[in-house]
Predict the structure.
Amino acid sequence: MQRGTSLLGPKAPFSGLFVSRWFGAPPDFSLSTLRGRVIALHTFQMLCPGCVSHGIPQAQRLERVFEGAPLTVVGLHTVFEHHEAMTPTSLEAFLLEYRITHPVGVDAPSDGIPVPQTMSRLRLRGTPSLLLLDAEGNLRASHFGRRDDLLVGAQIGALLSEAEASPTAESCTPDGCVIRM
C-alpha cells in the first residue's frame, strides 16, 4: 500500500497502537475489542493548527454522519514537538473543551527520540493523519494532512460495504464474539 494514496489499497496488516493512556474509553479498551467494525483512526496534536481546524472537526463529523453504522472513530494524540506543553493533563482539558467524546489514546513516548512509538513504527509523516482500518483490522488507507470529507466518506462507505458482504465478528467480549452473517 502506498502511503497518502486516495484509493483503498490492498489489505496490509496493522501493527497496532502503543498507548500509554486512554481517555474516554473503558479500562480494557484496545483496537482488538473493535474487531468487526471499521476504524477511522485520526492522529493529532492539540497545538497543531491543521489538527484543530481540520482533523478533529472531520473526526467529529465522521462520528455524526456514520452514527449507527459499524464505524468507530479513535483518536491518537501523537506528540513530536512541544512535549512540555502537551501533557496528559493538558490533553484531558483539551478533550473536554473541544467536546471530543470518542476514545483518545496518548501515543507512548520513545526512548531517546522525540517521535512517539506508534508514529515512528507506522512511519507517519506528521499530524493530522487519518488511517482507515477494515473490519478485519487491516490498514486500508493512510492519509497525511487535510483530506476532503467526500473522499473519506466514500472510502469508509466502501469499507462498510465490504464488512456487510462478508461474515465477521460484530462484537467481541472476553467471553467470545458474535458473528454477523
Remarks:
- The two ends are 29 Å apart (CA to CA).
- Residues 1-7 have pLDDT under 50 and may be disordered.
- The chain has one domain: 12-180.
- The helical segments are 49-65, 88-97, 117-121, 149-165.
